[in-house]
Automatic annotation (TrEMBL):
Organism of provenance: termite gut metagenome
Pfam family, one: HEAT_2
Protein name: HEAT repeat domain-containing protein
Record Gene3D superfamilies: Leucine-rich Repeat Variant
Length: 510
């Protein structure tokens, strides 16, 4: 039945709709079960128009059916159905049915209901008063602002059972949407002061949002005032509200303010700028255009929270001017700073390798490790020499990182170099060098990889050093060769052949 109601209500089926609506009206006089009647009434809300109003009105004083009947009239939402609801509001004597009518009036959002609703504000029934307050927030005009302000004050400008505070906030927003900007601004100004005095942060936030929406040109001033507030949640709410009005000049003002702002507020601003960069590419460009130098200046902050926020946000700006200042932090003696920068530089979408290579000599051991890792992650083959130099480092950690990085920065032209190193390697150096040899051949087709490896093997005694390299090719021929050597070798050669089979990628070696 519900499907039929929606089908006949589609555009172009007026005759079918009217016939169905009249059938429902007739059916209501033929049934006595309240649940069935309620169901049919709800169908009239879908199919009915003015022809159903009289029938629906007849159920408005029925406690069991007034809710679906009033709801159907609100859904029909024609001038005649609105008038019918208003008339019923005046004529209804029972609070229970009146509540249903008021809620349906609220649903229509018709301003004509305002006088009748205001007349009900002083009722003794708390439930009825609550829905009247809500209905005024949905139908009222600036004329109801003083009334709802009074009830919000009684509620302590906070959320409680009457919903008066929420209703007042909603009405101010409605008045603003109606074009009565000055009245809405005045109400929001008064509310923010009253809420601050009452210690109600969420209400202050709601009032501030209205202020910014009402006067976007004053957004910077309002935000600057809010950023002086000791409540961090309030400051961050203000930043969120300004986001809707964000422009290059607003970003520039906030960046400029960093110079004289307290660390905790700096963190809020900088983190917000980072979120703005992620929200929309045009905002990210606007922040770049506003100038990132104030953010760069914060990289030397003594407050690690500020420094951390600046690093993360500079990465999010995507501005290449941030690369060198960020990379320079890898020269810091503070390990926490080095690890922080290493983490975020890795995600920067731009050429970081040039700056890393340029500044590498100035890095302490922790910075060198980070720099090597970054060069490896970016497959920076042009900086192989830096990696090779660090293999001779006096720092065991730097040396180990250099060996592990080799596989990521070698190419075919380096095959002989890494082979020479492998053939002279200590046991601890062998595995990363085998990986480097295998990586240097990745650009070759499989058959050329095999040919190159076999040629090299034939010239040395410790051929077993290249079993893992053969395994990395994934070639069936290599698998058979290693299996034969496993069967015939003894000692170290047999062990390495076994490990090469264990590491084989695929089920062929099983």
């Amino acid at each position: 039945v519900s499907g039929l109601s929606h089908y006949v209500s589609a555009q172009g089926r007026e005759a079918e709709r009217l016939a169905t609506s009249n059938a429902y009206i007739k059916a209501l006089s033929m049934v006595s079960d309240s649940e069935v009647k309620a169901f049919i009434i709800r169908q009239l809300g879908v199919t009915g128009k003015d022809e159903a109003i009289e029938t629906l009105v007849s159920f408005l004083n029925d406690k069991s059916l007034s809710s679906p009947a009033a709801g159907a009239l609100a859904t029909i939402h024609t001038p005649a159905s609105g008038k019918a609801l208003l008339k019923a509001l005046d004529n209804s004597n029972a609070d229970e049915t009146k509540i249903n009518i008021v809620l349906s009036v609220a649903k229509t959002q018709m301003t004509e209901a305002e006088p009748a609703l205001k007349a009900l504000l002083n009722v003794d029934n708390a439930n009825l008063q609550k829905v009247v307050l809500y209905a005024l927030s949905q139908t009222g005009t600036k004329a109801s602002l003083p009334d709802l302000a009074n009830y919000a004050e009684k509620a302590g400008f906070t959320s409680e059972n009457t919903g008066a505070n929420e209703a007042y906030i909603a009405l101010i927003k409605r008045v603003l949407a109606q074009g009565d900007v000055k009245d809405a601004q005045k109400a929001a100004d008064g509310l923010i002061k009253a809420a601050q005095k009452a210690g109600q942060r969420q209400t202050r936030e709601a009032a501030l949002e209205i202020q910014i929406t009402a006067n976007p040109g004053n957004a910077v001033k309002l935000l600057q005032q809010a950023l002086k507030d000791p409540d961090r949640d309030y400051r961050n709410a203000a930043l969120r509200f300004v986001s809707k009005e964000a422009r290059t000049d607003i970003y520039a003002e906030l960046l400029k303010s960093l110079k004289t702002t307290k660390p905790e507020v700096k963190i809020d601003i900088i983190n917000w700028l980072g979120k703005e960069c992620e929200t929309d590419p045009t905002r990210r460009i606007s922040i770049q255009n506003a100038g990132i130098q104030p953010l760069i200046n914060e990289l030397t902050s003594a407050d690690f929270g500020v420094k951390s926020a600046a690093v993360e946000t500079l990465i999010k700006t995507g501005d290449i001017k941030a690369i060198e200042p960020l990379t320079a932090l890898l020269a810091s003696d503070d390990n926490q700073t080095v690890l922080l920068v290493r983490k975020y530089l890795a995600s920067f979408n731009g050429d970081i390798c040039t700056a890393v290579a340029k500044m590498f000599p100035s890095f302490p051991d922790t910075g060198k490790i980070a720099g090597l890792q970054l060069l490896g992650e970016r497959k920076s083959v042009t900086n192989l020499n830096i990696v090779l130099e660090q293999i001779s480092s006096n720092s065991p950690s730097v040396k180990e990182t250099a060996y592990n990085t080799l596989k990521d920065v070698v190419s075919a032209k380096d095959f002989a170099t890494v082979c020479n190193m492998l053939e002279k390697a200590t046991p601890a150096e062998t595995v990363p060098l085998q990986q480097a040899v295998a990586s240097s051949l990745l650009d070759y087709p499989q058959d050329k990889q095999l040919e190159t490896i076999y040629t090299r093997m034939n010239g040395i005694n410790k051929q077993y050093l290249y079993y893992p390299v053969l395994s990395a090719t994934g070639a069936q021929q290599a698998l058979e060769f290693i299996a034969e050597r496993f069967a015939s070798e003894t000692g170290q050669g047999k062990d390495i052949a076994f490990q090469a089979l264990v590491n084989w990628k695929g089920i062929e070696a099983a």
